[in-house]
Protein 1
Amino acid sequence: MTDRIADIWGERTPHGSGQAWPGRVDQVLAEGLTDGDVDRWVQSACVLCSNGCGCDIAVKDGKMVGIRGRAQDRVNRGRLGPKGLYGSWQGEQHRDRLTRPLIRVDGRLVETDWDTAMGRIVERSKELLASKGPLSHGFYTSGQLFLEEYYALGILGKAGIGTPHMDGNTRLCTATAAASLKESFGADGQPGSYADVDECSAIFLYGHNMAETQTVLWARVLDRLEGPNPPKLVCVDPRDTEVARRADVHLPVHPGTNLALMNGLVRELFANGWIDEDYIAEHTANVDQLRSVVEPWTPEKVAETCGVQAADVRRAAEIFGTGEKILSTVLQGFYQSAHATASACQVNNLHLLRGMLGRPGCGLLQMNGQPTAQNNRECGADGDLPGFRNWENPQHVQDLARLWNVDPAIIPDWAPPTHALQIFRYVEQGSIELLWISATNPAVSMPQLERIRHILDQESLFLVVQDIYLTETAQYADVVLPCAAWGEKTGTFTNADRTVHLSEKAVDPPGEARSDLDVFLDYARRMGFTDKDGRPLLDWSGPEDGFEAWKECSRGRPCDYTGLSYDKLRGGSGIQWPCTDDQPAGTEHSTGTERLYTDGGFPTAPEYCESFGHDLLTGATTGETEYKATVQPGKAWLKALDYTPPHEEPDAEYPLRYTTGRTAYHFHTRTKTGRSRRLNGAAPEPWIEMSVEDAARAGCQEGDIARVTSRRGSLEVPVRVGDIRPGTVFAPFHYGYWDTSDGGPHRAANELTITEWDPVSKQPLFKNAAVRVEKLRTGDGPSKAPDTTASRRATGAQR
Amino acid sequence: MKLPVYIGLLDEAEATLASSFRVVADGHGDEPDVHFILQTFAKKCDAHREALKPVIDRYGEDIEGEEEHRLTANGMTEVRSGPLALMLDLQDLYVLVNHIDVTWMMVGQAAKGARDTELQGVVEQCEGDSELEIRWLQTRMKQAAPQALLVAE
Ligand code: SF4
């Protein structure tokens, strides 16, 4: 195996259209060890991005000492990327690991035992429930726990406490994927499959730097590009990413203008007759409205608005309109930008207009960012109801009440679920007084950090943080609970193409650390949450009980898990839901469900759908009456919105557009990857990426230290002069403050971002701000931004 | 003919609503969704007045009749403070929008009676917006009510 820091995607194993992706097994063992030293291999899947690569963990003397891709897994066929290889177990063995609970005493966090820590939480929780009721409680979780953990959290929040204030950081990463699928198809659920990469004749990547966010999926694309009859590639991204470099058409739109481009592409399909009239008539509703909304968006108007060439818009549309099998993937460039849901819906619309769904190679991947984001959406630890049930459907709420054997009145269906930024707003206003944060780090990942720090520091707030390290967020906590990490606990999770994996416990967690599931179960027990018959609400003895309970919850819903079990998930490949008994896993031809909507039928029937939908401009709910009056059950919705400029645009004072994003070597706020020697070495410190001409205008050269200022704060970071489009600057969002000395200058990208969210998905707009850049001082050499990725030094590729 | 009175009322009510949207948007900058969406709504009011201009040019705008003027709901000039502020301010907007909504409905009826296709077109285009504004206000107030009424202090 080549060194995967230098060679991120590894050796090519090319394959042609319709051929199976060849295997290639990647493996890393601790220094000095060989295969013979390994005591046992334990089955798992990687949790450092949404790809969910199947892997085995090497164990020696009760310690994790290596990782190997699983050759038989449908997701990766043995491959792993840099994060999985160098940051999985290595990122968890740092001496900083939390091993004992901490409580705040006289302003300082001090070690204590579990009884004392949990006792404090329960005392405060009971006191608040008695004096203020359930709305005093908020839960903010992750995209990195296991399915069983989310489901436990969902039940205790919705049926134990009864609060609508539950969300996850999935709000920041994947909320728009879910929202756009609900708006277009009636329910969440990834239509496509990774196998579509092997079959397609063209791939469109919308705001998706796949080469860095899902490196193994990109390896699959590269293998197609280097094989016979390679697919055409179209890339929408303001940066000169690896994807852009390989693209036949690169559309480097101004951040904030995605919707204008999408309306233009849809218009071209209509204008050139590249639509499937029969499919539209049989399987969609609303085509006339869509046609009239996009009508003004000629390629010329798109070019002017987005800062791209009209000819490129035409070429991209032609590739979509005339291609035989199109695969689209969408990620943060769309989800974290203006008009997020509307833009993502237009991708759905392109596929609906051409009937390009449910067939091999004709896929749609509204991607996730985090490994287990999908499960948060399914299990109801975010704003959704478990099992993709509909908040506005009383029958669905009754179903859950029956399943949990509780009074339906406790389930908070009387208000729309509270999204993450609104939860923080209630904390700011003092009406949420207990906030429980699990496995996420809002003090670095939320927008406008000065404000977030102020909120976390609020006198009225009792803050519980459970994590594996003392994050920037944990430092504000009243109680810190040390948790088990991946490989130290058992559970299942589901990747971005609905593939369910079992991740088995390989070793014990360090010290007194416990699994997140144990913590939630313990809290429920101590709180005395019971069902209608006085039996414990959560009587699971471990994760497998949780999985079995979840299967019942998922029965008959789009994400049906009833045909799966821990046993079926052991040994082979991950399996895609829905997987029911009539579609048994493990038989030759029926290992779960490869693609949704193969028959062009969509889950829009009012009694079955997950949502009655929203107005894309404002987020106003459609409501049951209006929905029932207009829906054509089984048909997908062609939803559309006209483009208007984003709210914060460059001006004289802040002349540059600011966007944030990821690098191949880090995950999230670097809690694990920053503690891996190899990954940290590859990208040790933050930077700001500028084009040659913007850098010159600011008087900056490569490596100079610059101050970047927005209306909300400023950063002091080295400049990387790169191939980003002029007028736009980029900062990686991974870097916070745990590994800097106190009092240093600001370096977290989110110091500058704006508190604003998409009206439908409520996903924050991390990629839409205006900034100015000034040189502070000359640097002592080039910046340490990676030269292997989109952040590489300028090559003159920019227009 | 009293239609010009009502068209005048409508024009005035749209102006009042636009400035009220802006007052509430500015006053609740800490609620970004409210802040931005109300600005969008204010622009829609401006657009409605634009659309009405050619109609007003034809009919004239009768702003005399005292009785009719009493119908005009007062606009908002400042926002409230305290835990109920947002809800009460949104509720005031709700009254203003509903007032306009029903005014458009009546003008629409008259436009049909007069077979005035231009005015009918304007009504069609604008009525949908007030209906959307009503739905959004309901959605947002529904969200805010439990927290404001049960736990906020
Ligand atoms: S692509 Fe994602 S899941 Fe696969 S090894 Fe890399 S980080 Fe892990």
Note: Chain A has three domains: 1-172+370-488+510-540, 175-367+616-637, 656-777.
Protein 2
Amino acid sequence: MSVNTGGPRVGLFVTCLVDLLRPNVGFAAVKLLEDAGCRVEVPGGLTCCGQPAYNSGDLTDARALAKQTIQALESCDYVVLPSGSCAGMLRLYPELFAAEPAWQSRAQQLAERSYELTSFLVDVLHWDAVEAEFPASATYHDACSGLRQLGVKRQPRQLLDKVSGLELREMRDTEVCCGFGGTFCVKYPDISTRMVDDKIANIAETGAQAVLAGELGCLLNIAGRLRRQGSPVRAYHVAEVLAGMTDDGIGGEEA
Amino acid sequence: MKSTAHLFTEQARAALADDSLQAALRRAKSGFIDKRAAAIAAFPDFDGLRERGRRIKDHTLAHLDHYLERFADAVEACGGHVHWARDADEARRAVLDICQRAQARSVIKGKTMVGEEIGINGALEQAGLEVVETDLGEYIIQLAKEPPSHIIAPAVHKTRAQICQLFAEHHGSTAALREAPELVAEARAILREKFLAADVGITGGNFLVAETGTVVLVTNEGNGDLSLTLPRVHIVLAGIEKLVPTLDDAATMVRLLARSATGQEISTYTTFVTGPRRANEPEGPDEYHVVLLDNGRARMLADEFREMLRCIRCGACLNHCPVYSAIGGHAYGWVYPGPMGSVLTPQFIGLDGTKDLPNACTLNGRCQDVCPVKIPLPGLLRRLRDLQFERRIIRGPQRWALRLWGWVARRPRLYHRLTALAARFAPRGAARRLPLDPGWTRSRDFPLPKGRTFKSAWQERQRQENGHG
Ligand code: SF4
């Protein structure tokens, strides 16, 4: 267990995609938060933040999942998520409860304490003492919700700057959507593929060996397309690189 | 215009496979984006200007009845006529009546999206009038018999080669590839004749100024000016949401519009029209009409889509939409494409035939960031998804998959048991095919789980630490 018993109690919400498809991101987040002096808890009773339901018009399920999440996280000082869109979802919870004032104020309290991982480290903890090595060139994709809803842009770069060996190469149109869009990518696969192809062309243009982002959904999309094309470019969640916990990348063969 | 929005998916697929469309879109996209970015960088506080624009529109919409009345009074006081049209049909009839009373045979038109919305060209042609578009882009698509694919650049989907071909067919000129200025000169020569012969000029109106009854018209070709000065009769077609209280407000809006639309500080021609020609004026129409169209706008004013009425039709949301830039405007199937169209079309033609429009969006938010009047487009699209779900327009497997997933996700113990099983028994690596997958693995591998979920691995780590601790 960590020795930092005096730090803030941080509830880590391991998002549903990370939980199932890339647990390493969760462990990387734990390491980073502990390195930054937090007491990390992974509360039970959590599954998904409800974003797919909310974005598909299924407000009944979105509200139920929001309530479940609020209850599970109420006792933490802060709530941190390794995803801009899920952190953004928690910030939107109060909107769901216009007709239920009691829940709305609980949602409000949660929203005010919820952060995306890199923004929490940099903006709240003012921590950037990253100790990691990544001897490769990489480019960073600004995932949409984190960027536009939460203002995540400079924070991951400030942290990546501390990773030894890493050479960050900015790509063209780094702020343009990769075509994931939750259920969009399966409902409109042709458009989505065209968008991810544009993204991959911009990645390739930098010559970087890896692509990083703070959003697993986008990374699954980008990595899935890279793999299909047989590209050697590897994809990682930014937390994995910052924690020095990289394997052969998302969708790779290494267990 | 008959909607083909229900064929969105097929139309989008065809657009993606159309090489000349793709070439045209690629060229247009970076042009619009770079020019706007440069114009905004050169303006000291563009966000402040956006905020002012938003407030002006919100204030006007909150008192729209008042400003409409003032505008109408002012127009009549200058000798013009105002016609109120509840729907497209009434608007078409108003225009036809005016043309017939004036015994008009030929009509020239400046660009008007409301004209497209009510299908005015078809109605006039059916009544035996000749209609000629005077905006170069509109003229090109009129020759091609196509609807506009962009609200400010109607022929943006056409390549230069296609335009040369069209001109060759219709003007009898050479089909060889020619430069843009030569093509413009050729169209201009032909349009000149039409201008001089026309009885009626129809234009849109970018802003309607309540205090003076002035219609503000913004163009880059001067065709709007000719359409209103040369013919005997001038008809302005505009939606009721185009009102602004004062000339000062109109100036603010013009600054926003030009920068957002084309990256100009001001459009080449910004014309203020106030009534018919006066006795001491050398030019201008003898008769002047403004047709004000509701067509669902008053209803929007009262519901949760009111914010959409702030739209000044600048096209910035189209230019910055990665979906629009991939498929172009025609795939959306009706008059208004892109993000603004995906909100507006369901308002005008209903939720049923427009099922895809609110969904064909990744909610990436870029449109909202560039919108000069800060319309929360993604939020409005999401709200339309709510309505689709509520009204069971989203049905079948999609609905059931969502509900089933929700049902499981609301039961954490069951959820974690199922995900742990899935992680354990899934093959390693990445899948090239997945059962029941509607679209992912056609073009992408799916990275599979690696034996354990985070949850189960974490619990084990906790147990070990506690056991040793
Ligand atoms: S919604 Fe906003 S960005 Fe789009 S056309 Fe209207 S004013 Fe312009």
Note: Chain B touches chain A through 67 residues (CB under 8 Å).
